[in-house]
Amino acid sequence: MFVDTPGVHKPRHGLGARLVQAARAAVEEMDLILFIADAASPVLTSDRAVAEMLQGAACPVWLVINKVDAVGHDGLAAITSELQALYPFADNRFVSARRGDNVRQLLSDIAAMMPEGPMYYPPDVVVDRPEEFIVGEIVREKLIEATRDEVPHSLAVVVESMREREDREIVDIDASIIVERDSQKGIVIGAGGRVLRDVGTSAREEIQRLLGSQVNLQLWVKVRPRWRDDDSMLNRLGYRE
Q1: What is the pTM (predicted TM-score) of this model?
Q2: Most Cβ neighbours (<10 Å): which of 55, 83, 110, 116?
Q3: Burial of 56 (0-12, 13-18, 19+ CB in 10 A)
Q4: Tally of structural domains, the chain
Q5: What is the CATH number of the domain that holds 59?
């Protein structure tokens, strides 16, 4: 079972604090930790923060450097040396997720490291979240793609309801898009409603593939100032303390 932790950073709001807390809690429960770095990027402050957090980890930590196809030998050697200075990694792995270089071998070696245990989920389960969560993430992904870097960190999506009609194979979904400012609401809606309309169409098509049925998706944009510091909103979104 893979656990994808949030990034480690200096939190500036309640949401950030909960994400960092989740990452710290996950470290204590793992059998193996993968410290994934980008070969084409310099060592960041966040990398140093993660390395500091991992000090004293009870399980092995592997350094996995991705995008090795994007740098030459000297560049890869330099970034590897910098990262190795941050933490006493138990092993170093070099992969290219885009090309698939060394990915199968990495997965095989990870499996060999795992202790035997019970099957926590059926073989066909790929995520341990309810459908409402996945639907909300699909909508949020389409919004981030549509608005690029303008509002992604201030976006949240709450699925208000999902219900299947009794007389037809159609699922009605109502979802609220939460932003912090009126200006962000305008960006999400777009001129003449174009952005919201395109996001709704793209999200609906993917949700239909997920659910295997026709979907009627209704999206509403709401302004909630400082929602990232609102405990009740964070709890509703699933960011538990």
Answers
A1: 0.63
A2: 83
A3: exposed
A4: 2
A5: 3.40.50.300
